[in-house]
């Protein structure tokens, strides 16, 4: 990771029309429909962006979009990168650094996750209030990290309190159930064993997934206010565990997506 690499990518996107964005959005598994509400001005495949990783997951589309949403200039990542695809944590979070360099002042992240807290139900949404990093590394663990921000980044409040407060109010207004909880990030791509689900519950996780935490760490490194919401696609009860059904997980995410879109649009309007 060098300043030169970051500058090359940023200059390329500016030339393509990514001018003066205010908000960055990262869309997770099964949550790509927000782009239908975006007045798209520029759309670029990740494969065409210098130094960008390329999403290898079949239900992640792999496009960077720029346009207007709720009167704001927004960059949307339609498809994200994961540790389980073989990328490094620095590669996964490179787009966050690019969005910040282009000028975004807030970052909104979504993901699909499994409910560890069994009072949360399939199809519910959870606002991330805190997280547990079980991915075995840090996106800040590279030699020249201090060239990009404070090496020893404080994480006492990784999710922006002001944005969270706004999001909870929007959920209440729209009668959307929005739990508040702790997200555990694991490597994947395998799902968890019964013993692992019990362990996650013991250490305080309300939900588990394979993304988001690296991007949030880098947002904090860059002093970029960040918020994240999980769609809870399955209930992870170790005493009644069924084999994983990926098509069902994608379907549940799709059904919950209109609620996520309402929350994100409402928040973008207020930022």
Automatic annotation (TrEMBL):
<keyword id="KW-0328">Glycosyltransferase</keyword>
<dbReference type="InterPro" id="IPR011268">
    <property type="entry name" value="Purine_phosphorylase"/>
</dbReference>
<dbReference type="Pfam" id="PF01048">
    <property type="entry name" value="PNP_UDP_1"/>
</dbReference>
<dbReference type="InterPro" id="IPR011270">
    <property type="entry name" value="Pur_Nuc_Pase_Ino/Guo-sp"/>
</dbReference>
<keyword id="KW-0808">Transferase</keyword>
<dbReference type="GO" id="GO:0004731">
    <property type="term" value="F:purine-nucleoside phosphorylase activity"/>
</dbReference>
<comment type="pathway">
    <text>Purine metabolism; purine nucleoside salvage.</text>
</comment>
<dbReference type="InterPro" id="IPR035994">
    <property type="entry name" value="Nucleoside_phosphorylase_sf"/>
</dbReference>
<dbReference type="InterPro" id="IPR000845">
    <property type="entry name" value="Nucleoside_phosphorylase_d"/>
</dbReference>
<protein>
    <recommendedName>
        <fullName>Purine nucleoside phosphorylase</fullName>
        <ecNumber>2.4.2.1</ecNumber>
    </recommendedName>
</protein>
<comment type="similarity">
    <text>Belongs to the PNP/MTAP phosphorylase family.</text>
</comment>
<comment type="function">
    <text>The purine nucleoside phosphorylases catalyze the phosphorolytic breakdown of the N-glycosidic bond in the beta-(deoxy)ribonucleoside molecules, with the formation of the corresponding free purine bases and pentose-1-phosphate.</text>
</comment>
<feature type="domain" description="Nucleoside phosphorylase">
    <location>
        <begin position="23"/>
        <end position="268"/>
    </location>
</feature>
């Amino acid at each position: 990771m060098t300043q030169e690499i970051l500058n090359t990518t940023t200059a390329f996107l500016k030339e393509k029309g990514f001018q003066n964005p205010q908000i960055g959005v990262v869309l997770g598994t099964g949550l790509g429909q927000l782009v239908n509400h975006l007045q798209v001005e520029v759309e670029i495949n990740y494969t065409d962006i210098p130094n960008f990783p390329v999403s290898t997951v079949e239900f992640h589309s792999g496009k960077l979009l720029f346009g207007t949403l709720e009167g704001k200039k927004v960059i949307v990542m339609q498809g994200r990168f994961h540790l389980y695809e073989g990328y490094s944590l620095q590669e996964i979070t490179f787009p966050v650094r690019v969005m910040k360099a282009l000028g975004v002042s807030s970052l909104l992240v979504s993901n699909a996750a499994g409910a560890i807290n069994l009072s949360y139900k399939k199809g519910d949404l959870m606002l991330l209030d805190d997280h547990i990093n079980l991915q075995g590394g840090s996106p800040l663990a590279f030699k020249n990290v201090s060239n990009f921000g404070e090496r020893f980044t404080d994480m006492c409040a990784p999710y922006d309190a002001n944005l969270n407060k706004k999001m909870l109010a929007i959920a209440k207004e729209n009668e959307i159930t929005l739990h508040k909880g702790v997200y555990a990030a694991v490597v994947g791509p395998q799902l968890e064993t019964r013993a692992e689900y019990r362990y996650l519950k013991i250490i305080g996780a309300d939900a588990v997934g394979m993304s988001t935490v690296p991007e949030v760490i880098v947002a904090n490194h860059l002093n970029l206010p960040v918020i994240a919401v999980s769609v809870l696609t399955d209930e992870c009860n170790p005493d009644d565990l069924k084999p994983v059904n990926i098509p069902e997980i994608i379907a549940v995410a799709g059904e919950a997506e209109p609620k996520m879109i309402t929350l994100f649009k409402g928040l973008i309007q207020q930022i």
